[in-house]
Amino acid sequence: MSGTELAPFGAHEYLLALSRALSRNLDLGTVLHIVLEEAIVLLQADAGFVALRLPRTNMRVVATTGLPLETARAFEPLLNSIPQHSETADDTPPWWKQPALQRALLRVARRQHLPFTHIIAMPLEVDGDIIGALIAFRSSERAFTRYEERLLSGFADQASIAIRNAMLVRQLVQERERLAAVLANSADGVALINAERRIELINPALARLSGWNLDDVVGQPFEHVLRLENEAGVRLPAPAPHRDLVRQEGYLIRRNGTRGPYVSVVYTPLAQGRGMVASVHDLSERRALEASQRAFIAGISHELKTPLAIIIGYAETLLRDDVQWDEATWREGLHVILDEAQHLTRLVDNLLDAARLEAGGLQLRLEPVQLDEWLPRVLSEFARAHPSHHFDIALDGAAFPPVMADTGRLRQVVHNLLSNAVKYAPADTRVSLRLTYDDARGELIFCVSDEGPGIPLEEQERIFRRFHRVEGEASRTEGAGLGLYMARAIVEAHGGRIWVESEPNQGATFCVALPAADDNAPKRTIRIRPIDTTE
Ligand code: ADP
After folding, report:
1. Does the pLDDT at position 2 exceed 50?
2. Which atom of ligand 1 is nearest to the CA of 468?
3. Ligand 1 atom at shortest distance from the alpha carbon of 452
4. Dihedral of CA 511/516/521/525: which sign?
């Protein structure tokens, strides 16, 4: 042992002090810093670095002293030859003692213009897994001794454990952050319930659904927060402690006692009786859609059956052998049959259009259209076929830029708005079409106003959903609840907006805004995407 080496007792003390410093620290950056600085002092080295095998990556230099991090990166390719596990007994020296590796590392140092002359390397190893390496350099003539090697090896054991612990803590923190992000952004409500059946935490979605806030809720018995009742207002019993998954469905009672959304709650027990996790899924949208689909099927079968019954009735009557019908009766009968068949065709076309839209198979052939010339033509055509109402049109402005539109589909939108006006507003009332140009927004806006019953505020967004029809007066008229759904899909595919303005009993005004286009915009074809009706 040379005189410059530390006495064994000093080294022991030193390692103990280091171990205390390391065990007090769980932050990976700090631990790496302590390990590296102390190793350099212990070995009287001039520079060094720590490389770690980070999850899903190769060896990366994570801390340096006496040389810049970027320079140390040049050693990384060599470090990838370090095995994953420590070798078992064998004649060949372990990798960190192989002269070839040491020479190669020094060569890299020279290429980086680093004045290093001697090198010492040590694996960082936990339970046989090599998690990284500590490498130190000296620039002087003095080589590293066997004693220093042993010293570093004792030190590396301590350092490895401290680094592994800090890595685990960092992993845990990251997992926790990821979990917190998932919970915070989940659309479903989640509650963590402890073994005493009290709430430990809820996520923002559940706070929204239940009306509890994230702080007040902690420590509450879970059945105060997840209170469910059935359709008849009867409280559902809170699930008893259980080993299997339990699922309940009902209305969630909010903190203030009012009835909240219809939800399903799934309670999943945690291992070793540590409580359970409740996940709360809002079913109200799905139930509304199911209800409107049920109403649609009931409605559509009525819609289909009525004209068919009329057609069959007239055909059978006209074909009776025992009666001689005069020409006028024949003609009238055939007219009724034709009308009803045309009505059926329209209905089937609408259904097919909606089905095609769902499958993403509707296309728009866009071309420049002057609405100020086109709308009056469409309106007068429509007005001739509907003498029951009075129609007028106002063009608000002097010059109107064109819009890019598929005239066939846009006619369908205008017809739908006009037909609804005629269908829902009493005979002899006025239906007005008005076109304006909003220069600031670069939009052409046309609106159809009627003097009918109007649309309640809470229905104004829903009527654009498929199959949705307003209860009451409107549901006594024919219709499948598809017209406005199709209109919205078509308008939005044109890059436009559609909305309704209505005060109770003041009539309804449906407006469509379409972006203004250049006169010489080229024709093009685009595909309509179905609307997300669950939004
Ligand atoms: P449909 O008219 O075939 O039922 P729509 O999608 O065109 O389907 O309209 C959806 C619902 O919106 C209608 O059932 C009706 O309740 C309401 N509605 C639409 N237009 C008007 C209007 N002009 N006045 C009053 N209610 C309307």
Report:
1. no
2. 10
3. 24
4. negative
Looking at ligand 1, which residue's alpha carbon is closest to its atom 13? 469
The CA 511 to ligand 1 mean position distance, Å, reads 14
455 ligand 1 Cβ < 6 A: yes
Q: What is the pTM of this model?
A: 0.51
* Token pair of 92 as six digits: 């060949």
Q: Which of 424, 430, 500 to mutate to test the pocket of ligand 1 (most atoms within 8 A of CB)?
A: 424
Tell me, using a 6 A CB cutoff, whether residue 453 lines ligand 1: yes
Percent above pLDDT 70 for the chain? 93
* Whole-number Å distance between alpha carbons of 535 and 287: 14
Residue closest to 43 by CA, chosen among 100, 104, 115, 118: 118
Q: How far, in whole angstroms, is CA 53 from its chain's centroid?
A: 34
168/528 Cα distance (integer angstroms): 50
Q: Look at 11-25, 228-242, 423-437 and tell me which has the smallest mean pLDDT.
A: 11-25
The residue whose C-alpha atom lies closest to atom 19 belonging to ligand 1 is 420
- In whole angstroms, what is the distance from residue 204 CA to residue 488 CA? 32
pLDDT (tens digit, 9 = 90+) per residue, 144-185?
A: 999 888 888 888 888 888 888 888 888 899 998 998 899 899
Q: In angstroms, rounded to a whole number, what is the distance separating the alpha carbons of residues 324 and 232?
A: 60
pLDDT in tens, 304-329: 888 899 999 999 999 999 988 899 99
The amino acid occupying position 118 is H
In 3-state terms, the chain is what percent helix, strand and coil (to 5)? Answer: 45, 25, 30
Q: Which amino acid is present at 456? A: P
State the amino acid at position 480 in one-letter form.
Answer: A
Q: How sure is the predictor about 88, in pLDDT bands with cuts at 50, 70 and 90?
A: low
pLDDT of residue 163: 87
Protein residue whose Cα sits closest to atom 20 of ligand 1: 420
Q: Does ligand 1 come within 6 angstroms of the Cβ of 508?
A: yes
Cα of 363 to ligand 1 centre, how many Å?
A: 25
Mean pLDDT, residues 466-489: 77
- Average predicted confidence (pLDDT) for the chain: 88
Position 439 scores a pLDDT of 92
C-beta of residue 259 within 8 angstroms of C-beta of residue 210: no
User: Which of 429, 469, 471, 502 has most ligand 1 atoms within 8 Å of CB, for mutation?
Assistant: 469
Of residues 505, 492, 495, 498, the one with CA closest to residue 531 = 492
Nearest Cα to 241, choosing from 272, 269, 202?
Answer: 269
As a whole number of angstroms, the distance between CA 291 and CA 304 comes to 20
